[in-house]
Amino acid sequence: MSKILRSNPLARNSRRAFPSGVAQRRLVSTAYKLPPSYNEPNLHYRTASPEREKLVTALSKLREQLPISVPTVKNGKEIASKDEQHTLMPSEIATQFAKYSPATKQDVEAAIAAALEAKQSWAETSFHDRAAIFLRAADLVSNKYRYELMAATMLGQGKNAWQAEIDAAAELADFYRFNVGFAEEIYTRQPTLHAQGQAGKTDWRPLEGFVYAVSPFNFTAIGGNLISGPALMGNVVLWKPSPGNIYSSYLVHKILLEAGLPPGVIQLVNGDAEMITDVVYEHREFAALNFTGSSDVFRELYARAGEGVRTKKYRDYPRMVAETSGKNFHIVHNTADIPNAVKHTIRASFEYAGQKCSACSRIYIPESRAEEFWKEMKDSLSPVKVGAPEDFSSFTGPVINDKAFKKITTAIDSANKDSQLEKIVGGTYDGSKGLFIEPTIYSAKTLDHPLFDQELFGPVLVAYVYPDAEYDALLEKIDTQGGGLALTGAIFASDQKVIRKTEDRLRYAAGNFYTNCKTTGAVIGQQSFGGARGSGTNDKAGSAGMLMRFVAPRTLKEEYHKLEDVLYPHNY
Ligand SMILES: NC(=O)c1ccc[n+]([C@@H]2O[C@H](COP(=O)([O-])OP(=O)(O)OC[C@H]3O[C@@H](n4cnc5c(N)ncnc54)[C@H](O)[C@@H]3O)[C@@H](O)[C@H]2O)c1
Ligand SMILES: N[C@@H](CCC=O)C(=O)O
């Protein structure tokens, strides 16, 4: 028995009060303090740096294995894939990247049954034992698997070294570490007011049933968070990753198993999204959807869950948790530092080919500074290179797949011919070897152009040059356009009154609002992330709020004295 346990009065009391080992463990666990969370330090991958060498080695090792066969994992056991389906490498479409076996309906049913079987024992595992698994996983991400995860994210999802570093290494490790801290904070939320002769407490129960996690292609870390948050709170999870990141998602799962996650707790199933969803939505134990992806898909999933609720299909009202699309804006005020605004805009709009929900895709520029802005933009874009992620001189890479390429390039073709748009840069693409699209900017003659409302999820930015005197009216328009989405926004200005006014007037236009800083790049533990309106349920990834959606608190009260009478004093 540890020193802490021996000297802990709560531990001693609980041992007397609860003969069952399980209840005893659960109570004493809150008495320990876990290590503080910290952000994973970023490595920079400069020429000849040790990290660059390790990454290059991991990239060539992965290349030799292409197409990589992704095993099916059933209840923690790897089964060789029959390789019926494959994905392509976005930067080199002649190369198959991953091969895998899609799950059948029976596989999905079996995975749900196995998760539910693992549920009780996982829910009874003490919080500190669950936390240890995720802290160990964070360590595996930042050390043993760092380069393997990054190589998978670079070749499979088309991220360059820096983008892979912040996603697959730093953000993934950060989610694991910070979620443990957030969970600890939740568990210590206990009633502080107790009337004499009684005591109250809150039992932070996991949900009954299972959580369905559905993740997008663009961030390896997001899938990792969608599954680990609920699991950390004692839930079991069925995980359907995107077909666009099957291999990196497999690695995330493998790391959790290696870190000690009991095999049944998170069940990974690849395959047809609609079939898998059908099986889940038919199940009485469906307790929550944890979704990140496009708003249109979420609307469909939300509506279907509503129908199941109406017909009393489920025991509970399944929780709907989602972070979805964005049509994010930069506002440049005439007091802005233009070079700073331009650099931030290039990063926000074109890093990772604009494939971030937080990417800036609409910008408003004051007439008095427009010429300066465009000159600075063209100068700053000239060294920006579009190319394969393995080429370390590439600033940005390909888009994820043929469907995305077609959607974005169709919009570009039509924009190139649109008399209401003036092309500032780009407007070209080349899909012959990889799915590459040049950073593209159009200046619209009217604020009502449909491009201000459509999420393209590519490197396309639409601008409007506004008369300086019409700033207030512009704010009203910004608030109402953007296709009903409200994820991220930013103001570039040096006038503090303008900054304050903009923040106030656009209070509901973005869930994450930045001043003199780009719309992308929220850091776990520093800026929790998510938007409202059409952009999601705004539970904020990287916060205790998100974890709260995966607990069903129970309030307990115990009285120590006896009730002396039935009648009230005034009854006599
Ligand atoms: N707000 C955020 O935090 C955030 C983060 C990343 C991505 N996104 C959004 O995600 C989108 C890009 O990612 P994507 O292309 O992977 O999104 P997507 O909506 O196409 O797919 C997301 C997930 O849903 C699944 N899916 C698709 N159709 C489905 C259906 N009919 N039933 C059940 N599941 C279905 C996909 O297979 C995938 O796993 C963008 O809209 C982006 O803004 C949002
Ligand atoms: N959280 C990330 C975006 C994730 C969506 O794709 C950011 O803040 O840039």
From TrEMBL:
Keywords: NAD, Oxidoreductase, Proline metabolism
Gene3D superfamilies attached to this UniProt entry: Aldehyde Dehydrogenase, Chain A, domain 1, Aldehyde Dehydrogenase, Chain A, domain 2
Record carries keyword NAD: yes
GO CC terms, sorted: mitochondrial matrix
Residues of the active site: 323
Residue ranges of domain Aldehyde dehydrogenase in the record: 87-546
Pathway: Amino-acid degradation; L-proline degradation into L-glutamate; L-glutamate from L-proline: step 2/2
Any single biological process term in GO: L-proline catabolic process to L-glutamate
GO MF annotations, alphabetized: L-glutamate gamma-semialdehyde dehydrogenase activity
Documented EC number(s): 1.2.1.88
Top-level taxon in the UniProt lineage: Eukaryota
Family designation: Belongs to the aldehyde dehydrogenase family.
Protein name: Multifunctional fusion protein
